[in-house]
Specification:
By secondary structure, the protein is an alpha+beta fold. The chain has one domain: 3-Layer(aba) Sandwich (Glutaredoxin), CATH 3.40.30.10. The chain contains five helices and six strands, in the order αβββαβααββα.
Length: 190
């Protein structure tokens, strides 16, 4: 009987450790506006502060992934809401399965020809591991354990004030109600 209680306690503890928990100090952890990327093709600065007052959906992408077809949904989302204040930002990364090995020109051409991508794309970045881009390090710390990208097409949502609101894993498609409803809600807020 005691062994069963002990085992049950271990199982519950293990489950609790696997659940993401939010950093209570995330509000004090800064803002997305503190970070900058570089544009994909011309390698110009892409400070997130230029998008103040907009809702951001930041997605690490890859051209040779089972989730690559999400580019289509990201573009549709961007087309539908860009005039209302949504900015989708694609962040190519070769971190997962080496599925983004192409050059900047190859990535841009692939996205444009296959999915008609017009939303901003950054230069290729590391989004996980020991040395992620500072934005990804901040996002993981701000939202807490278990919220960092585990694969391509992980999504972070930033509100109009630069605060990290939510994340969605790779399996959550851009047209999922959870993403669309959150974006619509954030776009309506001042």
């Amino acid at each position: 009987m005691q062994f069963t209680k002990f085992l049950l306690g271990l199982i519950i503890s293990g489950i609790m450790l696997m659940l993401p928990f939010r950093n209570a100090d995330a509000e004090q952890a800064g803002s997305a506006y503190d970070y900058s990327f570089t544009t994909l093709m011309d390698e110009k600065p892409l400070p997130l502060s230029q998008f103040k007052g907009k809702v951001l959906l930041i997605v690490n992408t890859a051209s040779k992934c089972g989730f690559t077809k999400q580019y289509e949904g990201l573009q549709k989302l961007y087309d539908k809401y860009k005039d209302k204040g949504l900015v989708v930002i694609g962040v190519p990364s070769n971190d997962f399965g080496k599925q983004e090995s192409g050059s900047a020109e190859e990535i841009a051409t692939f996205c444009k020809l296959n999915y008609g991508v017009t939303f901003p794309m950054t230069s290729k970045q590391q989004v996980s591991g020991d040395n992620p881009h500072p934005f990804y390090k901040w996002a993981s710390q701000a939202l807490g354990l278990g919220t960092s990208p585990k694969w391509n097409f992980h999504k972070y949502v930033i509100n109009k004030n630069g605060k990290l609101v939510e994340y969605f894993n790779s399996n959550t498609t851009p047209d999922a109600d959870s993403i669309v409803n959150l974006i619509e809600k954030l776009l309506e807020q001042n």
